[in-house]
Amino acid sequence: MARRKKIYEGKAKILYEGPEPGTIVQYFKDDATAFNAQKKAVIEGKGVLNNRLSEFFMTGLAAIGVPTHFIKRLNMREQLVRQVEIIPLEVIVRNFAAGSMAKRLGMEEGTQLPRPIVEFSYKNDALGDPLVPEEYIVAFGWASQQDLDDIVAIALRVNDFLSGVMHGVGIRLVDFKIEIGRIWDNDYMRLVVADEISPDSCRLWDIETGQKLDKDVFRQDLGNLTDAYTEVARRLGVLPSNVTHAHKPKLIN
Ligand code: TMP
Ligand code: ASP
């Protein structure tokens, strides 16, 4: 069988050419990085969990009419997605102060914000994904003002959906990051949620105990990352069928 073509390898995923034009196979690795890849580890089972969790969130978004790149899950580590042109922005929505916002503004982590706040970072590892004002985005042509208005509307819908789903299982959605892609149908362009939605790109705190159930467990050495993600998946009812023991997920390549 011919070897399929690798299109791109990122820090947590590999993209391969899909079976049909306009499709991509997205492979979830076990690699975890933080602080712009200064900290790295292989965390057995993470890719399997993120593949399932991203499928769960993307499918739920589609069900409420938020367009996404997701087509279907193929196996334990791969999903078929629409090929998109990624807008080079990290779209971040915050409900509570944490991470870089808490640091920048000297706020206590966990302070509820007056309303959800949407902010943008320019996706560029060499520059450390710097925060950028909307004016830069429009002036440099990364997105038009109309695109940005649509992106903010999508981000807030994603926030309402994810906050509600998480609240239902006793988890607070502190903040998250999404990426948006463009899909072209002839001359007509649509914006869709792309990349992944998983505990790698969210802050998730247990509502009762405040326990962190996201990548901060790895960033801050708070314990076993797979256990944290398994707990999120278990509460949402999306545990992969062959991960039978939380402490030792079976390695599948
Ligand atoms: P921050 O507080 O470090 O700016 O992160 C805000 C949210 O965005 C948090 O949920 C983690 C997520 N995030 C990513 O997914 N990728 C990144 O490169 C960064 C910096 C943050
Ligand atoms: N920026 C991502 C994070 O901190 C990954 C990385 O920087 O390597 O979560």
- Which secondary-structure class do the elements indicate? alpha+beta
The proportion of residues in beta strands is: 25-35%
Largest sheet: 7 strands, antiparallel
| Helix content estimate | 25-40%
Structural commentary:
- With 253 residues, this protein is an alpha+beta fold.
- The protein has helices at 46-63, 99-105, 134-139, 145-168, 216-219, 225-236, and strands at residues 6-9, 13-17, 23-28, 31-34, 39-42, 70-73, 78-82, 85-86, 89-96, 112-122, 131-132, 171-185, 188-194, 202-206.
- Helices cover 28% and strands 32% of the residues.
- The strands form three sheets. Strands 8, 9, 10, 11, 12, 13 and 14 form a seven-stranded antiparallel β-sheet that branches. The protein has a five-stranded antiparallel β-sheet with strand order 1-2-3-7-6. Strands 4-5 form a two-stranded antiparallel ribbon.
- α1 (46-63) packs parallel to α6 (225-236).
- The longest helix has 24 residues, at 145-168.
- The mean pLDDT is 95.
- The structure holds thymidine-5'-phosphate and aspartic acid.
- Thymidine-5'-phosphate binds at residues 90, 92, 98-101, 129, 175-177, 201-203.
